[in-house]
Specification:
The chain is α+β, with helices and mostly antiparallel strands and 146 residues long. The chain has two helices and six strands.
Amino acid sequence: MIDIRHIMQAIPHRYPFLLIDRVINVEPGKRIVALKNVTFNEPFFQGHFPGQPIMPGVLIVEAMAQAAAVMMLKDMPDADEKLVFFTGIDKARFRRTVVPGDQLRMTIECIKSRPTFCKFRGVAEVEGTKAAEAEMMSALVNRSEE
């Protein structure tokens, strides 16, 4: 299991844009299962939507991409010198709304990998029901190139 402190060591995201809370399983370079506890205190709920808070689908995909970045960097010898840039989304589908009180369980698998590139398939579920799915691409770059 990887807690929030270790997630923050792996990726540069911070509040209000850090969208994963815990990793419950990881096979570096292959598969990761991460959690996001969705609370009413999320800043995006102020405007999406007043009176009917719904987590934006694009942020669900971003949460899956952040989990993928943790997986890519896990056990990499020079991980603190690398960044993972989100480079593309394909086949995104949103199946149910995600609201305050829900816990997203995201399972991301690497389906194609090169030394500086990876393509993933991610599924986000709430209580066993698919909320979203997408294929995502990411590039691995040196932090000095940012």
